[in-house]
Amino acid sequence: xxxxxxxxxxxxxxxxxxxxxxxxxxxxxxxxxxxxxxxxxxxxxxxxxxxxxxxxxxxxxxxxxxxxxxxxxxxxxxxxxxxxxxxxxxxxxxxxxxxxxxxxxxxxxxxxxxxxxxxxxxxxxxxxxxxxxxxxxxxxxxxxxxxxxxxxxxxxxxxxxxxxxxxxxxxxxxxxxxxxxxxxxxxxxxxxxxxxxxxxxxxxxxxxxxxxxxxxxxxxxxxxxxxxxxxxxxxxxxxxxxxxxxxxxxxxxxxxxxxxxxxxxxxxxxxxxxxxxxxxxxxxxxxxxxxxxxxxxxxxxxxxxxxxxxxxxxxxxxxxxxxxxxxxxxxxxxxxxxxxxxxxxxxxxxxxxxxxxxxxxxxxxxxxxxxxxxxxxxxxxxxxxxxxxxxxxxxxxxxxxxxxxxxxxxxxxxxxxxxxxxxxxxxxxxxxxxxxxxxxxxxxxxxxxxxxxxxxxx
Length: 458
Fold this sequence. Notes:
single chain, mainly alpha, Growth Hormone, Chain: A, 0% strand, globular
């Protein structure tokens, strides 16, 4: 493909990579105002975030496989329009259940985007340029994370939380229009295969049971959902092993160590870091008394550093083994989480900002090289599945991170609406959570090192 034909692919992939994290980061800053207006307790606030992650995690792999069969452009385009429509409806939502339901539907559209952006880039760019464009794509993710708290805080303070979804709807429409009008051709790598409907249903049901059960612990019905999810996982593996065209090639995990351990490392680091913004948003508002706009300024520190260093890390991963860069990034991130665990009610804002910058640098060193390793370890016909699997690991990690946070908050503070009087208990909850996250991150270092060398393998 000529370079001028690749450019629209890079544009829509970059726009979509910006859009989804921007929405989530902006929403983090608006949560206190949403809780006050909708009378939502701390657990319900967590579900404003978690419902999106749960739906996206359920559908990423099946929709990634569908894109390999039917066409990556088509699935991406439909996802962009769904994201636009649900964003507009969220701006009009008037109750907690409606917000949670629409966020879940938005997650379904997000899965169509998540599972195809990187797959499209990998389809049109040669291997020697892959790290560079993936670095640009991931930098867009972190630009979204950077601008989300700042713009979200400003919009929330000046116009109210609903304005965030109006802006998101406009960005979604722009992404959908460009993908509809400017992308030439279609990318289909498995058009001779059939779609595994039974496997897809088993996968979605299993993901729902596992993630919902985790979020409901320690309640007895939460344990019941986890048991059902474990049984569903066994059934899914059994079915996929005999399926002619499975939605998830189990041999990718069994025979491809680079693919398996790179995805495990992604799961662990996202599990260790995704809820940091959520916890710090509550800390800055209820403990430090900051406005949504000022909270956004503080949270800006981490993603700005990510956006600055991700393209460089991606470019370096074309020449230096990804496991070397990614493992160093995991180690730095682990150190940052241990430092966060020392934060108390007296910690200065500058200390928090410096720690967030350290976390951002560590994550930047990890993310682009790890993504390059995953996409470079599979054949072209698996790009959609690989991209979907990678996105699933990200969302599962984010879901795990939020579930751990919500579980600890529910046990330490209780299922009540959080107020400034809960500041000390909030700090205690966060401290325990950060220590658990640091342990997950240490496990990610081991997984990152175990993947082996990518460049020698290819």
